[in-house]
Amino acid sequence: MNKKIKIVRIDEKGIQKIRFIVQSLFALLCIWIGIEFYLFIRFLETDGAASFYQRPPGVDGFLPISSFMSFYFLLTTGEIHQAHPAGLFIFLAVILISFIFGKSFCSWFCPIGFLSELVGDFGEKVFKRRLKLPKFLDYPLRSLKYLMLGFLVYSVIFMMTPLAMKYFLDSPYNIVADIKMYYFFAKISQTSLIVISVLFILSIFIRNFWCRFLCPYGALLGIFSLLSPNKIQRNAKSCIDCGLCNKACPSFIKVDSVKTVISDECTSCLNCVDVCPVKDTLQLNTLLLKKKKVNKQYVAIGVVSIFMIVTGLAMLTGNWQNKVTKEEYLLHYKLMNSYGHPTGPNAMKQLNEQANKETKREVRKIDKI
């Protein structure tokens, strides 16, 4: 049977109010990017008759697979691919945040995580309880996001040569991947709508269902977060075993039974620190500096600053907006339905073969010259 855990009201004087403001502002930014992208799509739909709106580079942040491939391409070749450069720098910012402040992107920035929290709050108000799946279901389901992450990593790192990766990143399909994503939601199929609806309903009953069980991006950040030097620690001597930290944790981590919270599920939301009734019993410490306490406000300043600095660097170096012209976009838009994603068990092999063929053609051209 499902376990029932009483809800704890988080202290509004803690960091949660600031975190909510950061989440809300980032959500509004995402909405603004969506509006700009819609206006850009309208320009394409009218074959250039409507007013031209520059494609917002921030939409690259919604292409995590392409961003991951660009990241690995950068590691293997030293080059910044220009199809979706903003996505690469957003990815780098998120990874850097995870290294320093743990899996904090999920609880401070991610719009899906923010929506999941709001849905979870609604569910708790309705049922007056926080439901948790039993271990024999929870552990297998939590492994799903790692299986999906493993498949992605295997497909990109072990199945694709750097040449094949460049071939894919250069492909028209990758260039219009964001436009295809737009139409996936704008003209959503009945099957996709049913799946999203089911996930939404499940999130009412089981808090953060998507984030906890299915998000491969969160799985990747969870792995990086284990290397973070900033961890929540509990002072066992002053702990009064009230259990409030356990009840406040949205990830169901048993905070009151460990000295240091080392978990891929911890999102550095600091709920547990806020509800602790005994001063300095639960706190975020920097382990590299002899457990020096980190002020909670510094987390807010840190995650926002890192994101702004890395994305600002992309803008200053000319690696934010891609180099695709509006004429090229108009041409790709007309042919977009003919662009397909490589599928099937031999997809990576086909990409490698196509890349090799392209290379041989280029060599022949050079020989003729």
Structural descriptors:
two-stranded antiparallel sheet, single chain, 369 residues, 5% strand
Short description:
With 369 residues, the protein is mostly helical. It is built from 17 helices and five strands.
Structure, described:
With 369 residues, the chain is mostly helical. The protein has one domain (3-368). It contains 17 helices and five strands. The protein has helices at 16-45, 64-77, 85-101, 104-108, 111-127, 135-158, 162-170, 172-175, 177-186, 190-205, 209-213, 216-225, 244-248, 271-275, 296-316, 326-335, 347-368, and strands spanning 3-5, 130-132, 230-234, 282-286, 292-293. It has a three-stranded antiparallel β-sheet with strand order 3-4-5, with no helix packed on it. It has a two-stranded antiparallel sheet with strand order 1-2. Strand 4 and strand 5 (292-293) form a beta hairpin. Helix 3 crosses helix 12 and helix 5 crosses helix 10. The longest helix is centred in the first third of the chain and has 30 residues, at 16-45. It starts with a strand and ends with a helix. The relative contact order is 0.16.
Write the layout of secondary structure elements.
Blueprint: E1 3-5, H1 16-45, H2 64-77, H3 85-101, H4 104-108, H5 111-127, E2 130-132, H6 135-158, H7 162-170, H8 172-175, H9 177-186, H10 190-205, H11 209-213, H12 216-225, E3 230-234, H13 244-248, H14 271-275, E4 282-286, E5 292-293, H15 296-316, H16 326-335, H17 347-368
Antiparallel strand pairs: 1-2, 3-4, 4-5
Helix pairs in contact: 2-3, 2-7, 3-12, 3-15, 5-10, 6-12, 7-17
